[in-house]
Every structure is written in C-alpha cells, then in structure tokens.
Amino acid sequence: MRPTTSLSLSLLSTLLLLPISTLAAFTGEAEADGVKFDFTQLKTHSVVVEHKQDPTVLKSNYTINPTGKLEVIKDEKDQCPDGTQVCMISRLWRGDKPDDGAEKVIPFGSIESPKDLEPEYTIMRDEEKKVLGLNVTFHGPEYGDKKQSAIVKFLCDPELTGLEEPDKDGKGTNALKFISYEGEQVATLEWRTKYACEKVLETPAPSQGSWGFFTWFIVIAFLVVAAYLIFGSWFNYNKYGARGWDLLPHSDTLRDLPYLIKDFLRRAVNTFQGSGGRGGYSAI
Ligand SMILES: *[C@@H]1O[C@H](CO)[C@@H](O)[C@H](O)[C@H]1NC(C)=O
Ligand SMILES: *[C@@H]1O[C@H](CO)[C@@H](O)[C@H](O)[C@H]1NC(C)=O
Description:
Blueprint: H1 2-21, E1 29-32, E2 35-38, E3 45-53, E4 56-64, E5 84-94, E6 97-98, E7 104-110, E8 120-125, E9 131-143, E10 146-156, E11 176-182, E12 186-193, H2 213-240, H3 251-277
Parallel strand pairs: 10-12
Antiparallel strand pairs: 1-2, 3-4, 4-5, 5-6, 5-7, 8-9, 9-10, 11-12
This protein binds 2-acetamido-2-deoxy-beta-D-glucopyranose (2 copies).
One 2-acetamido-2-deoxy-beta-D-glucopyranose binds next to β3 and β4.
Organism: Orbilia javanica
Protein name: Autophagy-related protein 27
Family: Belongs to the ATG27 family.
C-alpha cells in the first residue's frame, strides 16, 4: 500500500502547489485578443520622476520587473515587500542629498496576490486595427486605505529594445516613462519596446532585382558547358571532319553514359546490401 500512498501524496501536493506557483504573476508572456506577447527579454527597469517643492525635491523611483518579483536587496530597509512586481520608492532631497529614510514605499501588484487580483491584459490598437501594444494592469495591495494599481502600457516601438536607460547625469532616452499617479492610487507607466510589436510571420521576401548566388551559379555553369560543347564541336569538325553525334566532344563517353550510370547504381546497391547482410540480423 505504501507506494500508492506516497504516489497520491505527491499527486496531492502537486495539485496543491500548482495553483500557488501560477498565481497572479505576470511572467513576461501574455496573450490578448489572439496576439501573443513576449517580454521575457526585458529586465528590471526604473524611472525617476521629480516634484520640486522648494526648497526640497521629491524624487519618486518607479521600478518594475516584467518577468516576476523584484529582487530583495539585503540590509535595505526602504523596499517593497518580497513578491512585489511594481514598486515606487520616494525620497525627499535637500540640496544634493536625500533624507534618511524614504517618504513612501508603495507596492503595486505582487506575484503573491490572490487569484482575483491577477493582472489584466488588454490589447491596444489604432483605428486601422494595427497593434499598438499591450496594456497590463497590476492590482496591488492597499496603501493608506486606497487600493493601488499600476497600468503599464507596453508600446510598440521598433527602434527601441526597451532596455534603454539614461546615463548617470539623467541624459539620454529612457524606454520607460512615468505618465501619472492619479488619485494617489493609479500609477501609469509607458514602456516603449520592440517586443510590444505584433510579430509578423517572417516570410522571406522574394529578392527582386538581384539574382541569388544559386541562379548565377546555374547560369555560369550552363554557359561553360555550352562554350565547351560549341568549341569542342568546332574543333572536331575542323580537325577530324566529324559529323552528327561525333561532333560532340567525348562523344564515346556521352554515348556510354547511361550504361555507366546503371553500372554505378548496381554497384552501389550491391555494396549497400552486402554490408546490410553482415549486420547480424537473422530472419525469423
Ligand atoms: C531606482 O530604484 C532601483 C531599484 O531599487 C535602483 O536600482 C535605481 O538605482 C534607482 N534609481 C535611482 C535614480 O535612484
Ligand atoms: C488599460 O487597462 C485599464 C483597465 O485595466 C483601462 O482602465 C485603461 O483605459 C486601459 N488603457 C488603454 C489605453 O487601453
């Protein structure tokens, strides 16, 4: 009875574990309206937005991991709880120094949130039905009595991988943009990336105008053979006064060709059968 028990136990634990591991997470892959999106090439990315509040500046840093939970940094007190997928940390800056301790740490969307808080996916299209990207809504826990959520619009941009970041001085493109944080509860971000473009099945375009290597090869081979035959015939005609089939160079060989091929094939078949017979299989 023991094997049966352990088998059903492992089966039970598998059944119990399965829904937990697939719970509510956005793993970078999603399907909406029959279109598949794959953002697994993207990595954790941040965008910082500044609000001047003379004499201080409030800097809010939004960080998102498109494939799972954000990494937990050891010995760092200001961070979102383990399992968070989109996190905002804001700090007050005086002069060029941040205050000790964060103003706010707000998680939007966690891979450990219950099933009914799963992220929502909606495809975005223009009037001509062309795919603009994917709208992913993360539903977070509450913060200050307000249920938080983050809308991340993955927008198709063939020019950007989505990993682009500004340099240390804050110059350069950031593929991730902060749009708004409405009513202290809905954060909206835009992420421009080629991975949000609808994949068009790549049919190799027929190379018009230019001939491929193979075409050239055939044409040149044909010309060489033709030149050989013409020159050879002319040579035989002049030198030996040949006529008809005898005009062709190597006319003997050409005439024998069918027999040569047949002979070659027969030898090949014999060799094949011979070695096969030695293989050690005996008929029953
Ligand atoms: C924003 O937060 C992320 C994750 O904690 C960090 O790696 C990044 O350096 C921060 N960016 C700025 C400009 O502080
Ligand atoms: C994205 O989805 C949210 C709901 O999840 C919706 O309120 C919002 O209008 C959508 N935005 C676009 C551009 O489709």
